[in-house]
Design a protein that fits this description.
Blueprint (H helix, E strand, L loop, with lengths): L1 H4 L4 H17 L4 E7 L3 H7 L5 E6 L3 E3 L3 E2 L8 E10 L10 H7 E11 L10 H6 L4 E6 L15 E6 L2 E7 L7 H14 L9 E3 L7 E2 L5 E6 L3 E7 L2
Parallel strand pairs: 1-10, 3-7, 4-13
Antiparallel strand pairs: 1-2, 5-6, 5-10, 5-11, 6-7, 8-9, 8-12, 12-13
């Protein structure tokens, strides 16, 4: 995409994303939330970018913990551990500050995001990944649901393993300093673009540590303190 719209044209990149999303909705998919991407400095270094982005979550991307994701469902899959927030209020008006965001969150859950890229070998720039729906492929929600008075997102620790081998570690502070601040950023960006966050939507916070590639048959498990575990297996 960068050969067509450039590497850093944010307006053009999100315009491509919206065009592709509209085609997906026209084909029958429903938007169920948003994902925040590139919130971790480790992931930014991995991909050579220096700012967060966001994409849409569709109903056909959703899995529950313990499910099997067909390996060919996502191109060049890479997995990262995150916190998922479920909204109970719209985020269309007001200051959209941390206090308002906290009040609008119904609960938090452990989550895995399966990122994918249409760009060969993940050779992406910011414009490439934004146009490609922020590299969103699938997402997996764990069973526990915690209110924010039961868990502090900034203080959690994360450990992610593939086939029992720890491959990624991190914490809440790795996500833009605080996952709540990541949602603040998203809420303001979404409203500015005329598509504010809505009650009932799921928001993925962004990675708590580095993403890792997966292969057919791999089982990924993430443990997040205060939120428990979430696992997924990839089909052959």
């Amino acid at each position: 995409m960068r050969d067509l719209i450039g590497s850093d044209d944010i307006v053009a990149a999100y315009a491509v994303q919206r065009r592709l999303a509209a085609e997906r909705v026209a084909a029958g998919a429903s938007v169920v939330g948003r994902k925040i991407g590139l919130t971790s400095e480790a992931v930014q270094r991995q991909l050579g970018v220096d700012r967060p982005d966001f994409g849409l979550l569709f109903d056909d991307m959703a899995y529950d913990g313990g499910d099997t994701v067909p390996y060919d469902a996502v191109l060049q899959p890479r997995v990262e551990a995150e916190i998922a927030f479920a909204l109970k209020e719209d985020l269309a008006g007001g200051p959209l500050d941390a206090a308002q965001i906290r009040a609008a969150i119904d609960y938090a859950s452990p989550a895995l995001e399966v990122c994918g890229s249409r760009i060969q070998d993940w050779d992406i720039t910011f414009g490439d990944t934004v146009a490609d729906n922020a590299s969103a492929g699938a997402f997996v929600l764990g069973p526990l649901r915690k209110k924010l008075d039961q868990v502090e997102p900034r203080s959690v620790d994360m450990q992610m393993a593939i086939n029992g081998n720890v491959v990624s570690t991190g914490n809440g502070a790795a996500c833009l300093g605080d996952p709540i601040d990541a949602v603040v950023w998203l809420a303001r960006q979404a409203r500015e673009l005329g598509e504010p966050l809505r009650a009932g939507q799921v928001i993925l916070s962004g990675a708590l540590g580095p993403m890792r590639p997966v292969g057919p048959g791999d089982r990924v498990t993430a443990t997040i303190t205060g939120l428990g575990k979430v696992s997924v297996t990839f089909g052959q």
